[in-house]
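Usage

Read records sequentially. Each one opens with the input sequence:
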Amino acid sequence: MNQPSNLLRLAATAVLATAFVAAGAATLSPGAYDRARSDLQTTYKGEREACSQQSGNAKDICVETVKGKESVAMAHLQYQRSGDAKDRSKLNEARYEARYELAKEVCDDQAGNAKSVCVAQAKATRDKAKASVKLAKDVTEARQDANDTRMKADFEVAQKRCDAMNGDSKDACVASARARFGQ
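and closes with the structure output:
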């Protein structure tokens, strides 16, 4: 497979990915997901094969770069498919793990203390990114808990207002309050 074709296919996939992210809560249909996944696998397989033309650590760096890009692209595709916060966290994790693995591979070009410092720096960068993702997840969960508590409290107030009514109007009031406050 030629390189321009791969680049064109990758660019088209990226445009498609951007369109779905821009659409917000849009999710991929199973067919679109399967086609995009297959396209990504084909693209990255070709890129891995191109790495075989190199040798030594340059080849290792090339392979690690491709593996990282593929991992991030697949996680991004899964997030587009579901739109779940869990898959968003997996996407962020794939990003920092890919950067970490590549940084470790780059460190192999060094020796002695310089290599140890390089690896330690790569690990520290990964750990900081991991902590940031965890913090964002915790904040998101705390916000969701607070919103749930507010909705429940507002529902209880609305329900008390409905208690003053009778018959069909009370039933309609309660049904409306349940729908408004997700209860």
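Summary fields computed downstream for this record:
- The helical segments are 3-22, 30-51, 56-82, 85-107, 112-163, 167-181.
- The radius of gyration is 25 Å.
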